[in-house]
Structure formats: structure tokens, C-alpha cells
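Note to self: keep these together.
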Amino acid sequence: MTIALRKEPLKSEPGETLDPQNWDEIRAQGHRMLDDMFDYIANIRERPVWSPIPDDVRGRFRDELPRQPSDLGAVYREFADHVVPYATGNVHPGFMGWVHGGGSAVGMLAEMLAAGLNANLGGRDHMPIEVERQIVAWTRSMFGFPEEASGIFVTGTSMANLLAVLVARTAALGPSVRQHGIGIEGALLTAYTSKAAHGCITRAMDIAGFGSDALRSIATDPCHRIDVAALRAQIAADREAGLKPFLVVASAGTVDIGAIDDLAALSALCREEKLWFHVDGAYGALGILSPVLAPRLAGIENADSIALDFHKWGQVPYDAGFLLVRDGKQHRDAFAAPAAYLRRETRGLAAGSSWPCDLGPDLSRGFRALKTWFTLKTFGTERLGAVIARTCALAGYLEARISAEPRLELLAPVQLNIVCFRYRAADANKVNGNIVVDVQESGIAAPSTTVLDGQLAIRAAIVNHRTDTVDIDALISAVLEFGAQRSKSGSVVNVEPSPPLAM
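Structure:
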């Protein structure tokens, strides 16, 4: 059967592409959107940190799939009226519940530019990939890694930690593990982290095929750092039992209180035992930019891999996770997958090998590097380091306020920018659980909870560059006010203690 081809040129009629028919109209609408978002950030203190979503607003987002076009202005009004007022709130200086960065106007503009380019950073020879390579080089410089070190942007440290486990797996078992699976030898591999480590480490071991039982959770010392002597003893016991230790995951800023493991001691132990040394530095690793905090990260320069988030202490808009690997060849061995449709050339658009898709599972990748590049170029590492140090100083201020108030009790040492405390009361777990919800619903501040030694703690993580002492004072006043109300009335909603919260 022969298919007849059209002879005449195919021309697009108005409305057949997705470009606007009137560029002046969309330009005006775009300027309005940009101005509104600038106003939103500039006047963020006038808004509540967070507001509960009314049922009718939530119901608006149960509409069926739209079949017909809508006016852009009307769609934007729906966003402005029904999305913006009920956002997470981490742009607000009173947001202290989880380790969320505050972003910046500079990063927002860079994200807009990246969306305009619509670049796919999976591979090929184009300048956006060179921007990402520059960030890789800068990150190598931050941590004193060698020239052959490789790096890649991912969604966040949860993904970066998973990729690090996969690289360590390939280094331990060889590239054939990608074809044959971990097999009998892989089933003997064991990894180690502390009881205070982030839960994504356990998930990474699960997803990587080892199972969560292959991860040993080592006890911590009074400062919530991994007990190095206990780790050494567990490694020896596992070897004696015929198992094969291969990976240690250290924490640079634990999820509950921000503790930093003894990275120098751990790196020495890993060299001695010939283990892969990975650092989960989700937010704490960027403390390397602060001359005050950098000495506490001594030993991180010896890591085989580091996972971190530029969208936390780096204040880059979400999302901008990153994995840095000391040995770029081992990194590529874990992910590179030659295919005809990914053929590399020496010239043309298919040049520029190696490609980012050789360093992770994604072929389609957004231009996360641009907002990070804009942030680093615009502010510089000295200013970012000062912002990081200031969040820790504010945590110290909060600690002092708690210590001076008899109705409050500190529940853990303050090591970086996270403060865990509670209101003294009978049935304290229930009372403090309700205080946190009361404070959140008031819009004054947004702390979270965690559990330390069976005690439910109010957890304040100070990450936002906009946070100031006035926001700390507002949090303390709100906790005292709601604490007094709960204690006096005895009206306590049953709040079950939650497990340690993800950052």
C-alpha cells in the first residue's frame, strides 16, 4: 500500500502552535506575574507563615481534566487566590519546622530563565551543560576534591544518597553487578550509619537491592554523633561472622539536632578498613563556606562521595540536590549505558562526551545548575557563608532564650542551627504536640516535632536567610502563650508522638 504524501507546504494556522497570538498581551501578563512575586517575597512578613487549606479551596482542585482553553489571566488569578495563600511557608522567616531553604529573588529569576531555554541536561554539546560542569568544578574546590572528581545535580540528597550507595555497590562488586545483580557475594555486604542518620539511607539500601537489614545502625554518643568505637567493634564482628563491610555513611548535620559526626576519625577508619566513606551532608556540608563552621567538617575532604542540597543552606530555590564523587571513573562505571540513540560524536550537537546521563539514571534533566550558578555568582561564597553562620548564631540566641525561661526546657545540645525544646507540663508529649499545631495554625511561626529519648520535642530549624531575632522572639511568645492555655484548660487533643522527621 502506498501512502500519498502532501505536495503543498504545511503552514500553521493561528492558534495551532502554543505560542501566544499577541506577544504584547502575554508580556504585560508576565510583567504582572513577576511584580506580584517580587511583592510576595518583599512583603512576606505581612502574611501568616502557613494557613490551613479551607475545604472549598481544596475542592477547587478536584476539577476534571480541562478540555478547552482558558484565559491565562483567569488561570493566574486562580493561582494567586487559591495557591499562593496556602503554600508551605518556607519563604517566610518564621518557618522553622523543617530544613527548608528560603530561596531568593535571584534564584527565582534564574529559574524563569532556565524555563525559557527549556534545556535538557541529559547530554549533548550545549552551554547549559558547561554551566553544570562549572558548578561541579566549584564544588570540587569547596571540598578539596581532586580534578578527576565528578558531580551531578539531582532532586535532593535522598536521591544523591541512593546514587552514592549504587556507586559504592559497583566499586565493591565490579561493573558486572549491573548485569547480574548483587548475587551471593553482594548479599554478604554490610553498610553502617548512626541511629541519628536520615531515614533515606535505609531506603537507599532497600532500593539498591541489599535490603534494610544490611544497614547497621550504630549507637551515638551524648552529642548524637556516631560512636566510632562501637562502629569499629561492629565492623570487626561482621567480618568475624563472614560478612563483608563495604560502606560507612557519616552525617554532617543530623536530621534531629544537626550533629556532625567525627569525619576525620571516620575517614581514617574507612581507609584502614578499606571501606567506601560517604558523607550525607544534606544541609550541613555547606557549612564549609563559613570559616567559623568549616573546622567542624574536618575530614570531609577525604570522603569518597558527598551528598548535599544547594536548596537548603545554599538558599537556591527547590530543587537542587547534588552528588560529588571523588573517583569520576567509578562514578561513570555505576551508570554509563552506551546505546545507539546516545551515540557520541567528536563534533556537532552529539559531541561533548562524557554526558551527565553517564553519572545518574536520568536522561531527561532540568537546568538546576543555572539557579545555583546565579546564586553563587551573585552573592559569592563569603556572603553565603556568613548567612549560614548567622543561622547558627540565631539558634544560639534561641537556646539562650529557652535557658532563661523556667517554663521551657532544652532537650538536646544545640550544635548547628536546630534547637529542640519543650514546654514543661504534665503529660508533656501531648501538650507540646498540641502547642506545635496551635503555633502553626496561628500563622505566627512553623516549628515541627521530633522525639528524643521518648520525649516529644518542639523542633526549630533555622535555615531561612530572612529569619531574625524578632522571629525567634515571636516563636517563644507563641509557645508560652499556647502552652499556658493548654496547661490551664487541660483541653488536649490526642497527638501521637511522631517519628524523627525528614529534613
